[in-house]
Amino acid sequence: MIRQREPIVALATPYGESAIGVLRLSGKGVLEKIKPFLKLKGAVKPRYAHLVTLVDEEGREIDEGILVFYPSPKSYTGEDMIELSLHGNPLILHRALELFLSAGIRLAEPGEFTRRAFLNGKMDLLQAEAVADLIGARTELAVRCALRQLRGELSDRIERIRSQLLELIAYVEADIEFSEQDIPTLSREEILKRLEDLIKDLEDLLATARVGNFLRKGLNLAIVGKPNVGKSSLFNALLGSQRAIVTDIPGTTRDFLQEQWNIGGIPINLVDTAGIRTTTDPVEQMGVQRSIEKLGSAHIVLLVVDGSKPLEEEDLSIYSMVKDKDHIVVLNKKDLGVCEDTAKAFPEFVMVSAKTGDGLEDLRKEILRRAGFYTAEGGSIYVSARHANLLQNSLSVIKLVYQQLREQDISPEILMLYLREAVHYLEEVIGTVTTEDVLDSIFSSFCIGK
Ligand code: GDP
Ligand code: ZN
What we know:
seven-stranded mixed β-sheet; alpha/beta; six-stranded mixed β-sheet; 3 domains; Rossmann fold; about 15% strand; flat; binds guanosine-5'-diphosphate; binds zinc ion; metal-binding; tRNA modification GTPase MnmE; Gyrase A, domain 2; Four Helix Bundle (Hemerythrin (Met), subunit A); about 45% helix
């Protein structure tokens, strides 16, 4: 079951000056390959921290570090693995990499360690993807969700649906093969009931896809409105204060620790539409056009209006650009009073004051509601676009048989074919069946060394 492939090496920590830098190695006979460059007392014990001296071909010392050997199959990849912690000097790490490459060890491709872990059955595809999600997560909520996927929660849910389908197939199969005999079979009503349950389960999972996408890629938020209505102020008030919450831990880079802009744990990408305004100047019109195109990538648009003043032509012309998109009208400057006519002009709006912070919580809630994110506690399972695609295929097939079966009797042979197809899509999600192309596209998004 476990297959040991050719040895690979990669730097597992960021390249740059740091206290330690970790080289990761995996593959068949990897320990033997690097032994000529190691000076250590006694034999290498599994999972034991050895103090070693790294030397080059001529025995010159390069660095001193800690080596841990994880023999197959009890390692991340399932292969023989080594983690070598050296001092985090790029010169040292580079030299060590060179030595190992000269010994016939190849540089790992992005995600290759995790890919091998998947191929060796150490984790399914959903868990492998969760590793990348976890490393790339931009908010604590996204981290929690990735961790749940890594622990196999999404796999379990899909596995449950799959085994229910397989059970149904087994009944239908029995119906075909032993139709003369006294084998328990399901009535048409029972099959329909089971299909209904499956449809419900799949729909529930699919309903998480929108938020799943936002958690992984961020929600694109555009803030538009004519000059001086308070767009910048609102943006800072909505998100900027988060910068101040970050604690200072001595010796760490502040930027790095800072959670990205988020609302309720959903990462926010600000769409730059600074150029949106009305103009008759043809050159400026081009800039306006570009901004409008950018608006196309926004998931949600905030149209900011000065709610304390009567509307102007420009407010309305910007409104006409966004009103067909998912938008929220924000009447700002509530602290200066409300202009009745302005409020009456919009069927729906949220009233805020970027200055005092009044109404901002309502606005955050409204943004989350539009995003399809209802639960405040979060940390649930959210599928990705890849999963959603396949789940949708599975669902469509099941819905099709459900409809046909309700309207007329379909032969068990046909029923079985359909159900098998539905199972197949689920297996693609988990990775039981997969292609090189799919694996390439998934693992190429990983960082080197993972
Ligand atoms: P932008 O041009 O739309 O980005 O508007 P700014 O955020 O630069 O704000 C324009 C002016 O309005 C500034 O003087 C802000 O201090 C002021 N302003 C923004 N929001 C409010 C608000 O809620 N109440 C009051 N009283 N003034 C505000
Ligand atoms: Zn501004």
